[in-house]
Design a protein that fits this description.
The complex is a heterodimer of chains A (about 525) and B (about 400). With about 525 residues, chain A is α/β, with parallel strands linked by helices. Helix content of chain A is about 35%, strand content about 20%. In chain A, strand 5, helix 7 and strand 6 form a beta-alpha-beta unit. The mean pLDDT of chain A is about 90. In chain B, the strands form two sheets. In chain B, strands 9, 10, 11, 12, 13, 14, 15, 16 and 17 form a nine-stranded mixed beta sheet that branches. In chain B, strands 1, 2, 3, 4, 5, 6, 7 and 8 form an eight-stranded mixed beta sheet that branches. Chain B is about 30% helix and about 30% strand. Chain B is α/β, with parallel strands linked by helices and about 400 residues long. The N terminus of chain B is likely disordered. The chains are: A alpha/beta (about 525), B alpha/beta (about 400). At the A-B interface, helix 3 and helix 12 of A face helix 6, helix 7, strand 15 and strand 16 of B.
């Protein structure tokens, strides 16, 4: 039996400035947009906030020929353009760029990994990273397998046993999409498991890094006011909206293979549903939180094929007007087939078959080129049982609690109030909490939190294997039903609207209607 | 930022001044046609009390900067105990850009309490505080037992912020003792800007023992060397004393007999072994007076020895080099050197970081009480810090 490792006494009561171990972050796909727009600015912001360890290093890996200097210059330009902290701080950048280097290589070439290993060995000596590495796969899913195998074959993966004893560690971060159906997700998970222990795997869903999403747990479980009414006895239904006003924006080829169901619903929307519906975890430990989310996914009533046409509505955007400008139809976008049947909108009614949520529908919708960009979770409470007040417009609207994920992150509670005056005139008003107003506007980007968590080995905000597979298992039935019907053309909706009429019918059949957030 | 009118000294009774402030605060939120709408935001009352009106004036830009990131109702008070009785007040909205939406604005009230009005200051502040949000008292001066202004303000606060580096360690310790004497449910947290300044140093020293194989060496420290920014022979300042207090309370060190040699102090570890504290000074740094310039720790046990060091870089006081050297019998020494940034230590950034720390910090209370018992005079910085840093 091994002796337990005693905690570091100097860490006792140390509440701030805990950085991760000195480590090298190796980004595969270093020439890509994600690296320029999100990853490097996030790492720079962490450096600015002094959240990175002194011996921090970033190694970019991509096919293009570049020198360390040219890669640094590119990244400096990217950080200058996309960091939330502008202008760039010369002293912070000077420290940060000392750790940036570049390795040219392709995912399927064994030589890439040999070169990378030699490069990382040198960094270990120069920066004191001691074989502690975070591999970030900002590449298309087809390259996940070859990279995982390349890392394993080149002995770049330290087994987790050493990590647990506080020695060097290896972690790997995967960008979504993780598979395109249950079968491919399982195959990918098996490939990853051949090289990495699940404790080393961090599957990113960047929505989980957003402050408001994290706040959902705090809101629910740190306030005694809401949890007692968070269930079938008081909630009529829940609406989850992930709407974008932009189209596919040059990602036509990608969208033709995915569609909004795989791009948004299977991951982001399902995660929002889980966080809304889950039971209190026994702790905030990664597995405790993820266990509860998996229970929600397993409680989702599986949709029979016959049910899919009644409970799920697809749509595709036609020409329209968005933000005052003419916008093309999806089929007119570059790299999109003029006969495309890919859905850019989906609305569905999900039922969570458990004690808390029995009979409470969760209406989920996600779409491109909609009236406005908004992501929100709206909990609509039951209507009052009896009306005491005379109302001119025929009724008193139900109270609604809306958690806005983006933009204008915040929480608003709509309730009925009396208008000032001699008569009793009722009015729907909102109590509005905005993050920007309450805590200032400089909220960390989701990627900052997620990268730091991955470096610290905190996996709560990442999706576990069984979670990903449960998400796919649920969505596969929907995708399978569409395939079985020959993938009929989806109904069209004008760009700049809230989706096809059939989506309104989906709620109207239940005597409800969509919010216009 | 919008300006509002200032009142003449002694022209109005305090209640009239406060009524006027109330009216002005309400008026801040009316929007003229064509004006960008303002949204009032308030997460706390931030009460800043300075020993003089000039010091309060100096802190106004600091408070305004903090309000941009931490919306609050700020009440900045300058005391002028020797002046003719009177209360002066100005009100101002401090607005953060709204990114196209309404401006998110905080309120700042500036008070100058002169003469006998100083004694009534707590009731004036209480009348101006927003309800249902916590109150932080930033006390820019010495804390004295039974102070008629400090105690009522501190009682109404959920957190008291001091700066031992500007005031004194004894003052911080008195605030800690005062808070400890209160019932737990009613006890404000005590924070210190100097303690926040030390946080990166603490983190870097803790990191020396993070590796599991090195952790046992944390209880075998034999020598601690500190260099502070001051003339040689000066007493160790609050930063150094708090730092020694932090190490001692974390590692269970006790005071031994006073040392006869200046610049040296011997403490006893939990296992009875000695720990030598060696202090020196350097007057050549750009860092503020009494700031830490370098810290090194040496520890030795059967497993080997470890020597860790954190030293500010000579040309850039906000940057430091962290070094760790591990030696084992029969093996080559392992050396790691890392360049780290200490974070800007301007007062606004420091106060903001302090406000974001947990309200109650037992480690600070323990360290302050321990260091207060040590007494700065016991620890003069006798050595030549420049020599130590060069070494």
């Amino acid at each position: 039996m091994t002796e337990p490792i005693s905690p570091n006494p100097l860490r006792r009561g140390l509440v701030e400035d805990r950085t991760s171990d000195a480590c090298a972050v190796v980004i595969f796909g270093a020439s890509g947009d994600l690296t320029r727009r999100k990853l490097m600015p996030a790492l720079y912001n962490l450096a600015w906030a002094r959240s990175l360890p002194g011996g921090f290093a970033v190694v970019g890996v991509a096919r293009r020929e570049k020198t360390d200097e040219s890669f640094r210059a590119e990244m400096k330009e990217a950080v200058s353009s996309f960091s939330r902290r502008k202008p760039i701080d010369a002293a912070v950048w000077a420290d940060f760029e000392r750790g940036i280097s570049y390795v040219r290589g392709a995912a399927n070439e064994p030589a890439t990994y040999e070169t990378l290993r030699a490069h990382l060995d040198r960094i270990d000596t120069e920066r004191g990273t001691r074989k502690t590495r975070l591999f970030y796969l900002a590449v298309p899913p087809a390259e996940f397998g070859p990279i995982v195998e390349g890392l394993r074959a080149a002995h770049l993966v330290v087994p987790p046993g050493q990590e647990k004893s506080g020695g060097a560690w290896t972690r790997v971060v995967f960008e979504k999409p993780f598979g395109h159906d249950l079968e491919s997700a399982r195959a990918l998970n098996d490939a990853v498991a051949s090289a990495f222990d699940e404790s080393q795997v961090f599957r990113i869903d960047h929505y989980l890094g957003k402050e408001t999403v994290q706040n959902l747990l705090v809101f629910r479980f740190a306030n005694s006011l809401f949890e007692p009414i968070w269930g079938r006895e008081h909630v009529d239904h829940v609406q989850i909206t992930v709407a974008e006003d932009i189209g596919v924006e040059g990602r036509g080829r990608f969208y033709e293979q995915t569609g909004v169901t795989r791009d948004i619903v299977e991951n982001h929307a399902m995660q929002l549903l889980c966080l809304t519906a889950m039971e209190p975890p026994v702790s905030l430990a990664a597995d405790a939180v993820r266990d509860e989310k998996v229970k929600v996914l397993r409680s989702l009533r599986p949709m029979e094929r016959s049910e899919v046409s009644r409970s799920v509505v697809r749509g595709q955007y036609a020409r329209g007007v968005v933000r005052g400008e003419d916008a093309p139809a999806y089929r007119e976008e570059p790299d999109v087939s003029p006969e495309s049947r890919v859905e850019t909108y989906v609305a569905m009614k999900c039922l969570v078959d458990n004690w808390r949520w029995s009979g409470v529908p969760f209406y989920v919708r996600a779409g491109k080129r909609m009236a406005r960009r908004v992501t929100e979770i709206a909990v609509v409470f039951n209507e009052i049982p009896h009306t005491l007040f005379h109302t001119l417009d025929g009724g008193i609207t139900a109270n609604t609690l809306a958690v806005r994920i983006q933009p204008d992150e915040g929480i608003s509670l709509r309730f009925i109030s009396k208008e000032p005056g001699q008569q009793t005139v009722l009015r729907d008003v909102a109590m509005d909490f905005r993050y920007g107003a309450a805590f200032g506007s400089n909220t960390p980007e989701a990627y900052e939190r997620l990268l730091l968590d991955a470096m610290r080995g905190e996996a709560t905000l990442f999706t576990r294997r069984d979670e990903v597979e449960a998400q796919w298992a649920y969505m596969d039935r929907v995708l399978g039903a569409w395939a079985a019907e020959g993938n009929p053309p989806p109904p069209m909706y004008a760009g700049g609207t809230w989706g096809p009429e059939q989506a309104d019918d989906l709620l109207a059949r239940d005597g409800r209607r969509w919010r216009k957030p | 930022m919008t300006d509002a009118a200032a009142r003449g000294p002694g022209e109005e009774r305090p209640s009239a001044v406060l009524a006027r402030v109330d009216r002005e605060l309400r008026a801040l939120w009316s929007t003229e046609p064509g004006e960008t709408p303002k949204a009032r935001a308030c997460t706390m009352n931030l009460v800043v009390v300075a020993a003089t009106p000039a010091l309060a004036e100096k802190w106004l830009p600091v408070v305004d900067e903090v309000l941009l990131g931490t919306p609050a109702r700020a009440i900045v008070v300058g005391l002028d105990a020797g002046g003719a009785d009177g209360l002066e007040a100005t009100t101002t909205a401090v607005c953060a850009p709204g990114n196209g939406g309404p401006l998110a604005c905080s309120e700042r009230v500036t008070l100058v309490a002169r003469g006998a009005t100083s004694a009534h200051l707590p009731s004036c502040v209480a009348a101006l505080c927003c309800t249902d949000v916590p109150t932080t008292l930033v006390w820019l001066g010495e804390v004295h037992a039974g102070d008629a202004t400090f105690e009522p303000l501190a009682r109404d606060a959920s957190r008291i912020v001091l700066d031992a580096a500007e005031g004194s360690l004894a003052s911080l310790a008195r605030a800690v003792y005062w808070a400890r004497a209160r019932a737990a449910a009613d006890r404000p947290g005590v924070a210190d800007l100097g303690w926040t300044r030390l946080a990166p140093w603490q983190e870097m020293c803790a990191r020396m023992f993070d590796e599991p194989r090195l952790r046992p060496l944390a209880s075998r420290v034999t020598r601690v060397s500190l260099v502070q920014a001051s003339e040689q022979g000066a007493a160790m300042g609050a930063a150094g004393l708090l730092f020694v207090g932090w190490l001692a309370t974390r590692l269970g060190w006790k005071k031994a007999a006073p040392s006869s040699e200046p610049g040296k102090l011997t403490l006893l570890r939990a296992d009875g072994g000695p720990v030598e504290i060696v202090t020196s000074a350097s007057a050549t740094s750009k860092a503020p007076l009494h700031a830490l310039l370098a810290v090194s720790l040496e520890a030795s046990a059967d497993e080997g020895t470890v020597r860790g060091e954190v030293a500010r870089e000579v040309g850039d006081p906000d940057a430091a080099t962290w070094r760790l050297e591990v030696t084992r019998a029969g093996a080559e020494p392992e050396r790691i050197e890392q360049h780290v940034r200490l974070r800007a230590t301007g007062p606004a950034g420091l106060l903001e970081r302090t406000l974001h720390r947990p309200t109650h910090d037992a480690a600070l209370a323990d360290a302050a009480a321990w260091a207060d018992g040590l007494g700065g005079e016991e620890l003069a910085c006798a050595g030549d810090g420049d020599n130590v840093r060069r070494a």
